[in-house]
Amino acid sequence: MLRHLLPTVLIALLVSGCKKDEADPPTPLPTPTPTLRVNHVVDGQPLVYDTLRYINEAGAFYSVTRVEYYLSELVLIGTGGTANDTLHGPWYVNAAGPTDFDLSRLRAGTYSGATMLLGLPPALNTTGALPNTLANINMAWPDPMGGGYHFIKFEGHFTTGGTSSGYAMHIGKNDFLPHCDLPQAFSITGSGGKLLLTFNLNEVFRTPNTYALAAGNYSMGNMGLMTQLKENCTNAFTIAYQP
Amino acid sequence: MRKFLLPGLLLTATLLASSCKRDTVDLPPISHPSGTPLDLAGPWYFPQMTIPANNPTTEEGVQLGRRLYYDPILSTNGPMAGRSCSSCHSQELGFTVPNTPANFLNVLPHVNLGWSSNFLWNGKYQGTLEDVMKFEVEEFFAVDVSVLQQDPTYPQLFQHALGSSEITQAAVGKALAQWFRSMISANSRFDQFRRYEISLTPSETNGMLLYLTEAGDCFHCHGMPLLTDNGFHNIGLDSVFTGHDQGRFLVTGNPADMGAFKAPTLRNIAQTGPYMHDGRFTTLEEVIEHYNSGVKHSASLDPIMTKPGKETGLNLTPQQKADLVAFLHTFTDPTFLTDTALASPF
Asked: CB under 8 Å to B306, separation ≥6 — which residues?
């Protein structure tokens, strides 16, 4: 009798033990965290560091050795009944490292485009305003030069007309803060997904000023060069949404 | 026989049934060392130090690391037999030594390394202090832990500091990492100025203005307050590169890294000569003269070194150079150089 009973008990235990999970209500998929992703390209080509392969508007070949900057005050411009949505940041971006940033939220709706700052708003552009991370202290704009932070450091080497040298496109100080326009319409279809920003580095050298590196390879402290770069950076980014 | 069969089957069934509980596996708790927590925060203008969760800093851990740092027992039976870390890192010299040992590069000072993630001149080791200590313990000193294990003192110290009297190379590295994090220099005249406690002399002030503006442009690689950006730069010491002079290229193989070396901190720089990776400059005046007139061009020269009109150097006046040297002297931290808490415990 026992010989028959035991296997029955054993099977019952096994079956009931495993069926318990199947009876549980299905676990809903977690809502993906909305993300801001920044891509870096040179006229459609993915950015590759340390290679003298890019040609700017003025005809110089150039390489890229450093791209570090802040983004902030990203305003998604609502249309068709969608309200504007401002994502404040700031986000420190090093193109050589991870360029995905968690967002607290994204608001579904239709948008005609966006605006943002390449740099920091004046309230944050004062010495010590940002947390003392290693990244932030290395972006400091020295007090004797006005204080605050570099908005961008964009460096590399170039060659043109038999001249080879380095370049360092640095921008800082509130008067030279680039206000970027991103006129690409997009729709956000859920609370997750990715907001995609694409930074075309060649635009820094393109419009409205054809920037000749041979005539100005070092911008920090040079108001004329920083003005040109500020103007060019305003249309260096595009925006899209990926569910 | 049958009386054993029933409990056995029930036990088997229970075990099998429990195996279906996918989500109830208990992970072992993360081991936490015993000891007294130690807060290593620097002054308010310092960055927050990142400390690995599996090696929190304790009083006992730092003291153990300090003892190991000064104890030649660390090198017993290894290639550095008879030497300790302190053999090449003297406190009064900012934890470096003036003489470059044969077949080695200039000795980098041990200071504020808790904020560093690139180690050695060419950045061969990157990550945390625990990561670079792995190299120091396993390769550089080839620590024979059996010697430490048999010592009458160390097993108990490891027990108190790290929660186990079993001494491993990893445990030695953890203790040393804690000690290195405690080696903080933050009380130089510059720091006191930064904290609004003192004023600088006119010459020091002029030097600071050179340092922090494009005239001297020191700040890009030696920014405040750590006086290093932890990055790698070719500063134009050479235009042809062989052997050690190839710098970071020897690690990455990237031609853009040819001749690039880690920017050393300038803390206690007046005490830590000679200068550069090969100790080619004996004085700060020679260093400044390099930046002033001796920059050599190459394809990998750091872009920061290529300002228009200053292609071969800064073109500073003798007075400006003297002011810059005066400012560099404000980075000397007497507290750090003489603090008995950082001295040998023996």
From this structure: A165, A166, A167, A168, A217, A218
pLDDT digits (tens, 9 = 90+) for A33-87: 899 999 999 999 999 999 999 999 999 999 999 999 999 999 999 999 999 999 9
- Cα B178 from Cα B62, distance rounded (Å): 5
> What is the distance between the alpha carbons of residues B237 and B260, in angstroms, rounded to a whole number?
10
Which 3 state secondary structure label does DSSP give A128?
A: coil
Number of A/B CB contacts below 8 angstroms equals 107
Predicted ipTM of the assembly: 0.86
Q: Which of A8, A132, A163 is the best residue to mutate to test the B interface, defined by the most B CB atoms within 10 Å of its own CB?
A: A132
- CA B315 vs CA B15, B210, B214, B293: distances in Å: 80, 12, 12, 7
Exposure b/e, B168-205, CB count within 10 A at least 16 = b? bbbbbbbbbbbbbbbbbbbbbbbbbbbeeeeebeebbb
Sign of CA dihedral B52, B58, B61, B67: positive
Over residues A127-135, mean pLDDT? 96
Distance CA B257, CA B246 (A): 8
Cα-only R_g, chain A: 25
Which of B204, B161, B180 shows the shortest CA–CA distance to B33? B161
**Residue A231 touches partner B, C-beta closer than 8 Å:** no
Q: Find, in chain B, the residue whose alpha carbon is nearest to that of A16.
A: B17
Distance CA(B288)–CA(B313), nearest Å, equals 10
pLDDT reported for residue A26:
65
**Measured between CB atoms, does A27 come within 8 Å of chain B?**
no
Count the neighbouring beta carbons within 10 Å of the beta carbon of residue B228: 20
CB A114 within 8 A of CB A197: no
- Is the CB of A166 less than 8 angstroms away from the CB of B301? yes
If DSSP codes are grouped into helix, strand and coil, which group holds residue A239?
strand
Q: A166 to each of A158, B27, B263, B302, B311, how far by Cα in Å?
A: 6, 53, 19, 7, 10
Chain A residues touching residue B13 (CB < 8 angstroms): 9-10, 13-14
Chain A residue numbers touching B9 (CB-CB < 8 A): 6, 9-10
User: Residue A28's pLDDT band (boundaries 50, 70, 90)?
Assistant: low
- pTM of whole model > 0.80? yes
